[in-house]
Amino acid sequence: MSFNFGMVPGYCPNFSAPVLLGEKPSSITLATNLLGGDGRPDSSKVRKGNVINAPGGFAGLLGAEQWKSKMESPWREVAWTEDRRETLMESISSYKPGCEALSEARVLLLGPVGAGKSSFISSVQSVFTGRFTNRAMVGSSSASFTKKVELQLFNIRGRSPEQPTALVLCDVMGLGDGETTGLTLHDTLAIIKGHAPEGHKFSPEQPVRSETVGYVKKPSLKDKVHCVVFVVDASKVSSYTKGLGTTFQQLREHISDLGVHQVALLTHVDQVCQETARDITQVYNSRIVQQTMTNAGALLGMSTSYIVPVKNYSSELDVDENTDILLLSAVDHILQYVDLHFQDCAGTYPKLSL
């Protein structure tokens, strides 16, 4: 059986892009390219009278001097303190699934190639080890490693290898614009339902089926995915194709039918806002990040309340307290929806201890 990512009847994704008045879509310029060194719009780059509808909040304002990238008060409150970091680490380290039969919560990361799925896994692990650990084989070229790998399960370790957390993050090849350029809808659902074995190498020409080596014919709750996390790159939200938007929408519809909750990570937020790049604690004071998140919500067909921004570790050798807080907050957000799934399943699995 084959599954195609066709357009949903009556649905037309709304991808707002930064367009200057009088310019054709082919000459679209990112709003972040119009910023000066201080993180604010550079009047030499913005023609007087232009009205810019861009990720970041130029919308409807005339001239760079009338726009401020930094908001007076944050649109989400975060305690950027060592105590908050320790509280989050302890909460995640001691987390237990709300089911006597389960020792681990399984979370699947889905997103296009290069969105930062593997980097997120390595970054979260790095928080607990106290030093950057490239555990999930993160690539730096356009040919992301996740194009080449099979289904991989990463049990996030606690403060020591002898103290693993109950969180398992599943990494898989990136999504594409259709059935021939990435993980297919059929195989994605096979993973979520628990049929796909760990280590399986996916190929559009060889979908997961009962004849597949290692195929799990009668998956238990522990074999299934308990939450799906979509991962999108903040610096590419406005340039993602409509085909990818359709892929997201189709996936969301089918995953929802399975009763699995979904959230999203907005990665690389430091690449769309200079003030956030200089100081990650400004992420929730940034109009650019806020508007980019709104655009990501439109791409995914998801309320922004399900989306959290993150900055993954990349070239750093040591971890940073505030980056850790953002990463741990994202994990905490994910685990809340894992728990919701277990609550929803309480009637089906009587051993759920909620």
From TrEMBL:
It comes from Oncorhynchus tshawytscha. InterPro entries: P-loop_NTPase. This is Interferon-induced protein 44-like. GO terms for biological process: immune response. It comes from the Eukaryota.
